[in-house]
């Protein structure tokens, strides 16, 4: 149909990605940071000198250096190995929980935006979830489900649903009002066709930007929940629980907290830089 | 034509920015110059005058990690309560820290009749409550009756309830009568604070606490602080301190920082690791509450099919590295044990106490005899600072002999609920106290040990009979009593429904400006003679 | 304006109602029996039953909900199970402390955002931009619970400049000079991430404004960059910044849970945490409802502020 030629929606995202992330110094830096951390997490079994939960006789709160790059913790485990394995929990949170929340949010958003009553209902429900600050939501959910990786993932996914639902709604409404979409509608294009052909591809950009932000926030939420003792169950490590252990031992082993803190900052920073670059690429 | 309005607008925005910057600068100025809040808050300071003459004055700033729970006032449920009860109330007698030889306090003398069914207690006649009313035998009666009331759920409730008659005709003497002899009445006299009948309803809600102790209750701000003032009319001489302020600092790391920064003088509730490094830092003194032992144990639900076989429980007891727990978690404050009795207890037997010393090879043999053991849950309370590390060590030790456990952290209320109901499905870790009192006390009252109904769901007629036999011994140090306690010890070791790991104690850390800080057998800090140097 | 506000009210009330159902239902799903907790470790079953009846926990669940909602509407907030004190007085004390802390944090955030974004845009130097953006990103990337502890170690223990925590002993009003010192660290910790987010947003909008045609015209007329930024770009960028600020208030309330714990600041965050771990249903219910109420009111205020600052939104918003 003729309408299709008005604006080739496909490829916009690809271009943004290249222009924003790869060519932009900021985006490249972000990508490198995230890749390094992800690779370290995936390769943990190969590169970690000790097991994540391996207790080494006599090595109680040893300082960094020698056999233990970052030292050992209060139950004689190698911190460097625990950091490597701990990344994996955050990878689950970032690459499973956030996308799941995003997909559910987008699905709800798409399904309800075009229907007045359903739209109002969905928006109000989003309001209800958003009305609880994430940490308070987290404390409540953990109280019911008990602490653990699954609980952290559920909290994060739950918190992301309204964020993406709102976002997809806004961009759908904006795009619907654009002249070329308006004109295809006038020319008799069906709602679902429009949605598939124009509206969804075009709303992908803001959604990708938000995905980056959400992923960095997810690393934080994991950390904060673990700090409050609501994160992964011992003995398994996560970046947040390692920071908590580091803070607890700040007087005995001041360097303990540095390792996990650097990795968390790398992840948060990496995702932020990527999403900033995407946003900048979009405007350029 | 366009200039005047835009100039005006520019000025207003610019002036707002300037004002903001000025505010920032003012903030910085306040933070650096003027009066410092740090100086204003530290009562003490200067060099330690250890061993010098006691000085009057100053408010002792105490930091604890939990808030007051009025309903748990008499259950030793938190260290905040311990500080409050220890300063505001007096007990009838005091046990010294290293023995069970009772010393007078509000009671000056006590005598048991020939048949053991009547006890006469002489009381001090120079004591008044904080509200001005006199302390009389009627207050002792009211205190015992309150203690016997199940709503307060106190230790020794059964002992208080065993009192069947009160003679209070002489205000300075009370005669208690019983249907049968009771062995641990003096334990009750040590533990029970004397309360005032008229004001007690207010105690129950946290509005006021009226006792006869060295400090009077001024106020409680939930989540923040409790303020106590000096009792100038204290019968044992007014304390040196003007007052005590209990500051509630929920984060265990922050409470340490506040002590290090000089904002607090004394802290409770930190991990043993933190206490140790404060001791090494200089300027601080660590006080392990010796004589008021607590015992860390692994509980087992003996109705769990995997734990039914005593050999599995023995394997666990032999596998756990108790020495390591004492050294690395409790930092040397405590010792590995197989039985709960402290060294000064008439029930103590060094040989028996070493029954389950670590023997991994033997533990593996036992596991091999039994065969496959399914994965078991090991639960612990998040409220106890040292227990997460202990749980992880136990888990590692058990994995070594082929018993897999999964760790489950519980909130304290849930943990206690399971303890009371006996609903832990597998293994759990907790501390118990009260082994520092008359040995029979444990087997007739404490939840993990109670022969009638215990957290392990362990039911055994021999154990029940031995528990009652021990309780009926009037003189805890007589040869008959020692023999009864030995039987009890054998029951515990043979059946092993509860696996003792280590003794430990609460600890306090004080700055070196704090002098003559002591504690009681009830784990309460005692501040009546404490003073601050400045 | 009144009609605009009236249009928003039904949905705000719906959110409050739905949240009340949710809060009530979720708290009943939490394992652990408050009656057992309260009765203590050595209570007999009879004692536990007595406590349960006293708390009304033996009533049917719907009955409990309706009774609770009725009390709430009449501002009867009930009594804390665990602390044994009226929730109203707990909330009042906690709220005061949290409001003071949150306002101080907002002040930090706004001052930081204004100074950094205007400064950055005015200076218009690439290196300065890079430094500011770097600082900003790091401020976002550092978790509050780490900055809090490190600040305390540095400024209260190593250099004894500021108090390590707690609220000023003589209150906020009687000695403001001391109060500021108690507030400085927690407010900085809480406000820094919000400030960084706001700075980023404001810088972006200022830049976008500077690319608008009217700016080109003004520049062609020879008006200085500083004047354009302060008189034209800033006022135009403010409405959307207010929206972002509104969202940040929610984030601040969440962040307060951690900052209050680290700095022993007896506010609502601490109260809700201890309430949940103590299974103190009535207190937690009230606090959760309060946080929802704050969110709803903040949203309304943000909408109103926006409508006031920008008539287009008012007209457009009414249609949506």
Automatic annotation (TrEMBL), chain A:
It is found in: Cell membrane. Keywords: Cell membrane, Membrane, Transmembrane, Transmembrane helix, Transport. Residues 87-275 form the ABC transmembrane type-1 domain. The keyword Cell membrane applies. Belongs to the binding-protein-dependent transport system permease family. PANTHER family: OLIGOPEPTIDE TRANSPORT SYSTEM PERMEASE PROTEIN APPC, PEPTIDE ABC TRANSPORTER PERMEASE PROTEIN. This is ABC transporter permease. It comes from Nocardioides marinquilinus.
From TrEMBL, chain B:
Residues 102-418 form the Solute-binding protein family domain. The keyword Magnesium does not apply. Keywords: Signal. Residues 38-60 are annotated as: Disordered. InterPro entries: Peptide/Ni-bd (IPR030678), SBP_5 (IPR039424), SBP_5_dom (IPR000914). Residues 1-36 form the signal peptide. This is ABC transporter substrate-binding protein.
From TrEMBL, chain C:
InterPro entries: BPD_transp_1_N (IPR045621), MetI-like (IPR000515), MetI-like_sf (IPR035906). The lineage of its organism: Bacteria, Bacillati, Actinomycetota, Actinomycetes, Propionibacteriales. CDD domains: TM_PBP2. It is a multi-pass membrane protein. Belongs to the binding-protein-dependent transport system permease family. PROSITE patterns: ABC_TM1. Its main location: membrane. The chain crosses the membrane at residues 12-30, 99-123, 135-159, 179-198, 237-263, 283-305. Keywords: Cell membrane, Membrane, Transmembrane, Transmembrane helix, Transport. This is ABC transporter permease. The keyword Nuclease does not apply. Residues 95-302 form the ABC transmembrane type-1 domain. PANTHER family: DIPEPTIDE TRANSPORT SYSTEM PERMEASE PROTEIN DPPB-RELATED, PEPTIDE ABC TRANSPORTER PERMEASE PROTEIN. It is found in: Cell membrane. It comes from the Bacteria.
């Amino acid at each position: 149909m003729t309408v299709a030629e008005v604006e080739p929606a496909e490829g916009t995202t690809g271009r943004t990605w290249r222009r924003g992330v790869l060519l932009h110094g900021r985006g490249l830096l972000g990508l490198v940071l995230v890749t390094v951390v992800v690779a370290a997490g995936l390769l943990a079994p190969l590169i970690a000198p000790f097991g994540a939960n391996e207790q080494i006789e006599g090595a109680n709160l040893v300082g960094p250096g020698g056999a233990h790059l970052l030292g050992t913790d209060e139950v004689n485990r190698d911190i460097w190995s625990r950091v490597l394995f701990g990344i994996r929990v955050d990878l689950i949170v970032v690459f499973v929980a956030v996308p799941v929340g995003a997909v559910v949010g987008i699905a709800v958003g798409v399904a309800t935006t075009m229907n007045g009553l359903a739209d109002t209902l969905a928006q109000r429900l989003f309001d209800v979830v958003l009305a609880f600050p994430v940490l308070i939501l987290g404390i409540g959910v953990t109280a019911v489900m008990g602490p653990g990786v699954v609980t952290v993932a559920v909290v994060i996914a739950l918190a992301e649903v309204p964020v993406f639902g709102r976002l997809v709604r806004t961009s759908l409404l904006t795009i619907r009002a654009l002249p070329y979409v308006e004109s295809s509608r006038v020319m008799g294009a069906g709602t679902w066709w429009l949605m598939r052909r124009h509206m969804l591809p075009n709303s992908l950009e803001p959604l990708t930007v938000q995905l980056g932000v959400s992923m960095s926030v997810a690393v934080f939420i994991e950390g904060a929940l673990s700090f409050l003792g609501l994160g992964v169950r011992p003995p398994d490590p996560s970046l947040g629980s390692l920071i908590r252990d580091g803070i607890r031992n700040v007087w005995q082993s001041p360097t303990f907290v540095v390792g996990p803190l650097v990795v968390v900052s790398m992840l948060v920073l990496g995702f932020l830089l990527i999403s900033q670059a995407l946003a900048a690429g979009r405007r350029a | 034509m366009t200039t005047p309005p835009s100039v005006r607008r520019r000025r207003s925005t610019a002036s707002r920015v300037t004002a903001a910057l000025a505010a920032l600068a003012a903030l910085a100025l306040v933070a650096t110059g003027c009066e410092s809040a740090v100086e204003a808050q530290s009562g003490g300071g200067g060099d330690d005058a250890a061993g010098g003459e006691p000085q009057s004055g100053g408010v002792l700033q105490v930091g604890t990690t939990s808030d007051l729970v009025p309903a748990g006032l008499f259950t030793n449920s938190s260290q905040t309560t311990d500080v409050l009860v220890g300063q505001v109330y007096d007990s009838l007698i005091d046990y010294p820290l290293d023995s069970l030889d009772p010393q007078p306090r509000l009671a000056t003398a006590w005598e048991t009749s020939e048949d053991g069914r009547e006890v006469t207690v002489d009381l001090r006649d120079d004591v008044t409550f904080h509200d001005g009313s006199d302390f009389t035998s009627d207050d002792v009666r009211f205190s015992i009756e309150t203690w016997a009331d199940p709503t307060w759920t106190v230790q020794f409730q059964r002992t208080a309830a065993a009192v069947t008659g009160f003679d209070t005709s002489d205000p300075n003497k009370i005669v208690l009568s019983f249907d049968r002899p009771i062995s641990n009445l003096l334990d009750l006299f040590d533990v029970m604070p004397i309360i005032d009948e008229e004001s007690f309803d207010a105690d129950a809600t946290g509005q006021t606490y009226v006792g006869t102790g060295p400090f009077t209750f001024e106020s409680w701000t939930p989540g923040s602080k409790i303020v106590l003032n000096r009792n100038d009319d204290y019968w044992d001489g007014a304390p040196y301190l003007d007052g005590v302020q209990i500051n509630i600092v929920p984060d265990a790391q922050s409470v340490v920082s506040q002590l290090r920064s000089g904002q607090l003088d004394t802290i409770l509730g930190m991990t043993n690791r933190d206490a140790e490094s404060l001791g090494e830092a200089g300027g601080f003194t660590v006080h392990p509450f010796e004589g008021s032992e607590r015992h860390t144990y692994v509980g087992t639900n003996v109705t769990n099919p995997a734990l039914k076989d005593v050999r599995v429980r023995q394997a666990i007891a032999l596998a756990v590295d108790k020495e390591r727990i004492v050294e690395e978690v409790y930092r040397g404050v405590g010792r590995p044990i197989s039985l709960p009795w402290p060294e000064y207890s008439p029930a103590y037997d060094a040989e028996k106490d070493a029954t389950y010393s670590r023997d991994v090879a033997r533990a593996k043999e036992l596991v091999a005899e039994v065969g496959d053991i399914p994965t078991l849950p090991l639960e612990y309370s998040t409220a106890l600072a040292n227990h997460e590390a202990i749980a992880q060590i136990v888990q590692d030790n058990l994995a070594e002999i082929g018993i897999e456990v999964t760790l489950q952290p519980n909130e304290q209320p849930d943990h206690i609920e399971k303890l009371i109901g006996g609903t832990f499905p597998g293994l759990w870790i907790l501390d118990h106290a009260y082994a520092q009192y008359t040995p029979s006390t444990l087997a007739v009252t404490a939840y993990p040990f109670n022969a009638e109904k215990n957290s392990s769901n362990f039911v055994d007629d021999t154990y029940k009979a031995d528990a009652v036999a021990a309780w009926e011994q009037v003189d805890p140090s007589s040869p008959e009593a020692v023999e009864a306690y030995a039987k009890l010890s054998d029951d515990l070791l043979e059946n092993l429904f509860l696996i003792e790991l280590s003794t430990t104690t609460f600890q306090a850390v004080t700055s070196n400006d704090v002098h003559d800080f002591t504690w009681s057998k009830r784990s309460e800090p005692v501040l009546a003679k404490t003073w601050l140097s400045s | 304006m009144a009609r605009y506000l009236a249009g928003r009210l039904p949905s705000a009330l719906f959110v409050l109602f739905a949240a009340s159902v949710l809060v009530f239902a979720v708290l009943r799903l939490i394992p652990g029996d408050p009656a057992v907790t309260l009765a203590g470790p050595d209570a007999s079953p009879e004692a536990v039953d007595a406590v349960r009846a006293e708390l009304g926990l033996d009533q049917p669940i719907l009955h409990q909900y309706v009774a609770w909602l009725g009390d709430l509407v009449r501002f009867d907030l009930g009594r804390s199970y665990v602390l044994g004190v009226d929730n109203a007085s707990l909330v009042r004390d906690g709220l005061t402390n949290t409001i003071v802390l949150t306002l101080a944090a907002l002040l930090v955030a706004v001052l930081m955002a204004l100074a950094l974004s205007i400064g950055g845009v005015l200076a218009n130097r690439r290196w300065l931009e890079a430094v500011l953006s770097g600082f900003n990103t790091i401020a976002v990337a550092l978790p509050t619970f780490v900055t809090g502890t490190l600040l305390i170690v540095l400024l209260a223990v190593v250099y004894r400049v500021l108090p390590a925590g707690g609220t000023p002993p003589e209150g906020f009003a009687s000695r403001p000079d001391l109060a500021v010192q108690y507030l400085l660290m927690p407010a900085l910790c809480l406000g820094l991430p919000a400030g960084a987010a706001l700075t980023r947003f404001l810088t972006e909008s200022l830049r976008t404004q500077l690319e608008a045609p009217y700016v080109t015209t003004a520049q062609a007329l020879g008006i200085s960059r500083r004047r354009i930024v302060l008189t034209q770009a800033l006022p135009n960028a403010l409405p959307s910044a207010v929206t972002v600020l509104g969202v940040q208030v929610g984030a601040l309330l969440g962040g307060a849970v951690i900052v209050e714990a680290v700095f022993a600041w007896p506010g609502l965050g601490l109260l809700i945490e201890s309430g949940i771990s103590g299974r103190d249903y009535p207190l937690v219910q009230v606090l959760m409802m309060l946080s929802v109420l704050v969110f709803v009111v903040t949203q309304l205020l943000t909408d109103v502020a926006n409508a006031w600052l920008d008539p287009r939104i008012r007209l457009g918003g009414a249609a949506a």
